[in-house]
Amino acid sequence: MHFLSKLSLLLSFVIWPQLLAVEINEPEGTKYYFNGSLETENIEYRYGCRLEKGVENDYDGLLIIIDKTTDTVIDTVLYETGYLETILFIGAFNDGTYGVIIERIYVERPSLTYCVYDTLVMKINQEGQVIAQILIDHQLKEFHNHGSYLILNEISNDKPDLVLNSSLEITTLPEFETEYFCDFNYPFIGTATVNEVDVDKISLCKPGIYNVVITDGDYEFSFTVVLAPTVEGAVNGESYSEPIRIIVSCPAVELDGMPFVSGDVVAEPGDHKLIITGENGYQKIIDFRITPTVFGVEDQVIYSEPITISVNGIATLNGKLIPNGETQITENGDYELIMWIGAEKYVTKHFRLAIEAEDNIDEPNGNTFPFLETILGIVVMVGLFLVLKKK
Prior knowledge:
Layout: H1 3-11, E1 30-39, E2 43-52, E3 59-67, E4 72-79, E5 84-92, E6 98-108, E7 113-124, E8 130-136, E9 142-146, E10 149-153, E11 162-164, E12 170-171, E13 184-186, E14 191-194, E15 197-199, E16 202-204, E17 208-216, E18 219-227, E19 231-232, E20 239-240, E21 244-245, E22 247-248, E23 253-255, E24 258-259, E25 265-266, E26 270-277, E27 283-290, E28 293-295, E29 301-303, E30 307-312, E31 314-317, E32 320-322, E33 325-329, E34 333-341, E35 344-353, H2 371-390
Parallel strand pairs: 20-27, 29-35
Antiparallel strand pairs: 1-2, 2-3, 3-4, 5-6, 6-7, 7-8, 9-10, 10-11, 11-12, 13-16, 14-15, 14-17, 17-18, 19-22, 21-25, 23-24, 23-26, 26-27, 28-30, 30-33, 31-32, 31-34, 34-35
């Protein structure tokens, strides 16, 4: 293929209207050809090739780094590896680096035919410096980028022929985790929908179920992300013997059917249900229990003096409800104390109160004669009577 025809093919990839926004001065004796542009928040990377005028068969990979905030060129980076190079595509990785795809061409003599030698994939930093690279020994024609992956195809295809991760390792497209507990951001090139709504970027922060579809030409990649809230202070299925403070990362929360404010304390004994709602029908349910407490009495114990019991929760004493707090028991008898959670008997304690009465004999002079002294006095009197009778 003739050199100028080859350049025309390269220029047919993408023509970006934004390329005209910044004036780029070409050094004398050179000509710039652009294949496309990748934009981040503050930086634009414009890529293609640079042709040396008057020099046969000499063009190099070209990257121009532009500050979008000032519309000025930060740097111009050339990539020359001993062949005829042109940058066909640039994609972004999640770690702040970029993947650059360079097609390398050589001239077949004596026919002066231009042939694709191989494809060079480089990882560069924000300044365009090469961090790593990998050679692919054939031509690739279609390129896509999402997440930390480059997708390279030999022909236009909706399925990837080759996938590279941010370390330029050959891999497969990711399988997403069941749940994410923080904000989910996923860069892409092309168009995207989230739950069938067009979006400019994939940045998810609210709990929910999200069906994502990325489209770039004939290529399509779809996945589902479940974004879960973070909950501190309560764990599903756990029981707590004291009040707990619950902190939730989103506002759409109910406790036992009533609105709940993150940071509030749950102190009422019983079974509780915390429900967190999110996008697209998402729900997270946490069932937990605050156990009732009782102090001042033990099971199967006989008490010989009045006792004071303290309860927190629904309690019955011999079948009658007693209030939370302290209750004094002073009457003798057998008792059954039950602490309830709903209709469930959570704690049952049986005990007896047996207070003994004190029997005292009060004499007129205020003295009390012991029983033995009384008997002894009677014996002495009888003995004296018998002695006098014999005389």
